[in-house]
Structure formats: C-alpha cells, structure tokens
Specification:
- By secondary structure, the chain is of the alpha/beta class.
- The strands form 2 sheets. The chain has a 5-stranded parallel sheet with strand order 3-2-4-1-5, with helices on both faces.
- The longest helix is centred in the first third of the chain and has 13 residues, at about 65-80.
- It has 2 domains: about 5-115, 3-Layer(aba) Sandwich (Cobalt-precorrin-4 Transmethylase, domain 1), CATH 3.40.1010.10; about 120-225, Methyltransferase, Cobalt-precorrin-4 Transmethylase, Domain 2.
- α6 (about 145-155) links the parallel β6 (about 135-140) and β7.
- The chain is about 35% helix and about 20% strand.
- The chain has helices spanning about 20-30, 40-50, 65-80, 100-105, 120-130, 145-155, 170-180, 205-215; strands at about 5-10, 35, 55-60, 85, 110-115, 135-140, 160-165, 185-190, 200-205, 220-225.
Length: about 230
C-alpha cells in the first residue's frame, strides 16, 4: 500500500501550558516544518514547553501569507518533510487562518491529521453550564450593528445556545449593541479562560459592561454566550 502524505493540525494551550497533550508534544518534536501565525509566539511556546527540535523550521502562515505559501508547503510534504500547523492559541482554523491551505492540501490528496486539544469556545460552554445539547459557534461578531441584528434575528429563534468570540478592542461597542438588541436578557461572558484569573460573568449586556469598566477588565480575549430560553 502506498504511504499517505500527512499534514498535522496541532491544538495548543489557550492559557494554561499544562493543557498541552502528550500527542501534541511528540508531534511537535518530530516535525520538519511548523507553520504558525507568529513565529515569535511559536518560539516562546516551544521554549516554555521545553520542546527541543534542532531540525524544525518555522514558517509564517496567516491571512496575508496563507495563499502564497500553499504550493511551497505541498512541495515540502511531497519531498517527505513532516509538516504541521499551530495557531497562536487553541485549535487551528477556529476563527484563525488555515482553511484555504488545508483545503488545497486535501485537494492534492494530503491526509489532514488533527491533534485535538484546547478550544476556548468549548471551555466557555462548559464553564457557563448553559444548555449544551444544541449550540452554535458563530465566530466573531460582524462589525456593523445592522449585521449583528440580522445574525441574531436568524439564530435566536432556533432557541439554542449561541457562542461568539470578541476582542478587547470591540467588546465595549459589542456589548452596547447587544444591549440595544437583547435588552435585559441574561447572557454570559468568559474571560482569561484557563488562566489564574479565569472568570465567568453573567447578567444583561449593560450590567456586564458596567462591571468590566468599573473593574478595569476590558482586556483579554472574550467568549460571549447567549443561552437558549428555558423550555416551557
């Protein structure tokens, strides 16, 4: 049987380094080429995890370079170089670059091998204790208020838990928009997941925004959860 060409998609910690898996460590130790959003961040991670791999070369893969390097990556693989991908944190492709590259590799008969691990939206869902039988992860909110309203008009009637990411630069504006749309409806926000000051905050969008501003906590990456309505 002909040996398959493989490409490894490796999940890394979202905060706590102890969340790295043994399989991820062993894979990183065995690679020839590691694609990453930021080579400096990747070097810090490898050093923090005491991963020594003298043959490993780092190659930047972000939204600006992904299309340009895909043929080079395929050539590496066809020349029997073991290649893998990480994001800055968590599971690659989840609101991160990589889809176009992986789609191209798949079209060229490369087997995609996921190395499972941490994911912020799943950790947030568990921490919230919101209904998890049915949920939708919808990535980052659109930038415009009209598009946010249109998105929520589509998904809220499904009565499932909705999960979003938001950046520290947009969290204040997004919560103001959610307050206009949702009023006093209770939502939840997770911040600093897996870190020392991990926190789950619950209340109306305006209540949460007041809390974040009063306590100087408009920083870090946020996961916003809108729970399904209770069954009548």
């Amino acid at each position: 049987m002909q040996k398959k060409d493989n490409f490894y998609v490796i999940s890394t910690p979202i905060g706590n380094l102890e969340d790295i898996t043994l399989r991820a460590i062993n894979t990183l130790k065995s690679l020839d080429i590691l694609l990453c959003e930021d080579t400096r961040q990747a070097q810090k991670l490898l050093k923090a995890l005491n991963i020594e791999n003298p043959k490993l070369k780092l190659l930047r893969c972000d939204e600006h370079t992904e299309e340009r390097i895909k043929q080079k990556v395929l050539d590496f693989i066809k020349n029997e170089k073991k290649c893998g991908l990480i994001s800055d944190a968590g599971t690659p492709l989840v609101s991160d670059p990589g889809f176009r590259l992986l789609n191209f590799l798949k079209e060229n008969e490369v087997e995609i091998i996921p190395i499972p691990g941490p994911s912020a939206f799943l950790s947030a869902l568990v921490k919230s204790a919101y209904p998890s039988d049915k949920f939708a992860f919808l990535g980052f909110f659109p930038r415009k208020e009209g598009k946010i309203k249109k998105l929520l008009d589509k998904y809220l009637p499904l009565n499932i838990t909705l999960i979003f990411y938001e950046s520290p630069y947009r969290i204040e504006r997004t919560l103001k928009i959610l307050s206009n749309i949702l009023g006093e409806k209770k939502i939840g926000i997770c911040r600093e997941l897996t870190k020392l000051h991990e926190e789950f905050i619950e209340g109306s969008p305006s209540e949460i925004l007041d809390y974040l501003k009063e306590n100087n906590k408009l920083k870090g990456e946020f996961v916003i959860l809108i729970p399904k309505e209770k069954e009548k």
